[in-house]
Amino acid sequence: RGLMPSSPHVGLRRDVSRTPRKNGTENLLKSGWLRALYYKAKRSVRPNSGHAHSVNALTMLQSQPPQGDSKGSVSSLWTRMASSIGPTWILVGMLTWSVLNWQAQYWLHTPAALEQMREQVPMQVYDRSTFLFLTALVMDVLNILFERQTTKLDYVLLPAFVKGMATTSNMVVRFGTPTVAFTTLGRPFMVQRYVCWAHTTPTLLMLVRLISSSISDTQFFTAVAWDETMLLTGVLALVTTGWLQGTPIGCHTPKAWLAHMGHGACTLAVG
């Protein structure tokens, strides 16, 4: 009798506490936040045909498909290229580069200046820079193949265009006939570099515009316009000496007629 509990209710309460519950999930969910999540999910499910469902919160969370893994959201490379601004930017840049290079050759190029530059600067100087820019260009082109699952394809195309412009300019200087002119002091300077900078700097500004969330389109176009003005006045400042050289009578060569169209900007650049 001493081994038996004094009250049947006490023994029953003790036996129930030792008996495992029917719902094993409630035994596992002993953590406060996990238990709260479980009961919240259980209350959120409506009864079906008058019968309540016992819902496991972990099973419900695991059954949801992860976002962004849908096969339908993955577009092909050509679809990404069609919706990107990079291909259009590159095609327009190639066209304007060809036109500016042709115009610079016609108006400013002097064969004697090119010959003097070849004598002063060995051609091997451009081998290293050409190799570096070409290697970087190949890496960017290969990266394009792995950008099919992101909308940031322009972040690869625009830098590839910058390196492509630099590679093209170096190869023209190394193996071709770059545009070289004489300054008013008789020193050769390479106009080919200015043609390259007229395309690479706006491309970098476009890349910054895409990354930034505070730069407006007006600010972007204003920055590009001032950059192009700076390059134009820089060339004019090298081939002229000020206001007098901005007139057709004061031009030291017939090719300096270009300065007549921008003598006002030239005066501001020379100061």
Automatic annotation (TrEMBL):
<protein>
    <submittedName>
        <fullName>Uncharacterized protein</fullName>
    </submittedName>
</protein>
<keyword id="KW-0812">Transmembrane</keyword>
<keyword id="KW-0472">Membrane</keyword>
<dbReference type="Pfam" id="PF01036">
    <property type="entry name" value="Bac_rhodopsin"/>
</dbReference>
<dbReference type="GO" id="GO:0016020">
    <property type="term" value="C:membrane"/>
</dbReference>
<keyword id="KW-1133">Transmembrane helix</keyword>
<comment type="similarity">
    <text>Belongs to the archaeal/bacterial/fungal opsin family.</text>
</comment>
<feature type="region of interest" description="Disordered">
    <location>
        <begin position="1"/>
        <end position="24"/>
    </location>
</feature>
<dbReference type="InterPro" id="IPR001425">
    <property type="entry name" value="Arc/bac/fun_rhodopsins"/>
</dbReference>
